[in-house]
Amino acid sequence: MAHPFQQKFESVLERDKSKYVKPFIISWDYQAKRKKRGVKYSNGLPEDFYTFNGAQDIVKWMNWFSGEYPSFYKDELINPLIEKSKQNDIAILKNLGIDYDFNQYKNVGLNNAHDFFIPQSYPVPKEFEIKTVLDFGAGSGRQANLWWSHLNGKGNFIAVDAIPMSYGLQHHYYKAIKPDFVDYIDNPDAFKIDTKGSNLYHVPTWRLDLVPDNSVDLILCVQVLPELGKQLILHIFEQFQRILNPGGAFYIRDLNYMYKAFGTVDIDTALINAGFTLEYKAFIEHNKHLHGIPKVWRKNMESITNVQKNNLNQKKRYLLEDIDALTGGILKRKK
């Protein structure tokens, strides 16, 4: 028999199918391709992502962070975040009744530290201060570890996913952080995001429409985009353009163009077409300096983009100056 949360998830999915759900929104194209190829993961890692068996599978997700993970950031910046992440997860897993060998934890904490630190690692104008964060493709829910500790009382944390196993893990992880967090699956009809409050929200990808316009300061998208199909990528970019505040940040960390598991979408071109400007991209070597290539894109803000380019009057003035120079200053003398 299916896990009770899986039954609840599937019931809401079926309820929403006719109005909100499109096949490309609830698919994980890379895993579908992997299944067709008959590729299996090693023991101790997640396998069937469309079946939720219980919160204990969080450990399988954490086991993904094995091997060497480099970091070129100074230890004094990152190590305190790793330790804070560890202490948070000790409490979270204790609340869930899950045993875990925290001697293996460092890479989990390192990834949490990177994804918390990098989007805030350089100064930005005060109006771009991060108060509300949306985590797209939230995995086991790990981004809430440090981000909710930071945002609690300041703004909202919103997690988005559509895959039964990961959605179920996120649900239980968030419940261990904040028992009264708000999940669409628990009560679809009453779900509403209070943009003036501070809460932890969980919403399926097919209901991104419930995230209000211009209500998010930062979107996290870590090791996600290369595994999605073109339709879904273009769909979420359109949604991100809607829900981000003008000047809001879109943080991506993945293998950039070194790895494309599915489809052929050009992420940079798609983001430019969707109204984003690349603000930061680390000039580093994957797995030598850091795992993945971090990037920060900004949703275009008219007041800034307009002053960063020549307007029509400026172009006319420069043209007249060029003509004046070529004619030996005739235009200037006529004035």
Which percent band covers the strand fraction?
5-15%
Distance between the termini: 88 Å
Largest sheet geometry:
8 strands, mixed
* CATH homology group of the largest domain: Vaccinia Virus protein VP39
What top-tier CATH class of the largest domain fits best?
A: Alpha Beta
CATH T-level fold name of the largest domain: Rossmann fold
How many distinct domains? 2
> Helical content, roughly?
25-40%
The number of helical elements comes to 12
How many strands? 8
Judging from the principal axes of the Cα atoms, what is the shape?
Answer: globular
Biggest sheet strand line-up: 3-4-2-1-5-6-8-7
CATH architectural grouping of the largest domain: 3-Layer(aba) Sandwich
The secondary structure category is alpha/beta
What quaternary form is this? single chain
Low-confidence stretches: none
Radius of gyration: 23 Å
**How confident is the prediction overall: mean pLDDT?**
92
Describe the secondary structure blueprint for this structure.
Elements: H1 4-16, H2 29-37, H3 58-62, H4 75-96, H5 106-117, E1 133-136, H6 144-151, E2 157-161, H7 164-177, E3 182-183, E4 200-204, E5 216-222, H8 230-243, E6 244-254, H9 267-273, E7 276-281, E8 293-299, H10 302-307, H11 312-326, H12 330-334
Parallel strand pairs: 1-2, 1-5, 2-4, 3-4, 5-6
Antiparallel strand pairs: 6-8, 7-8
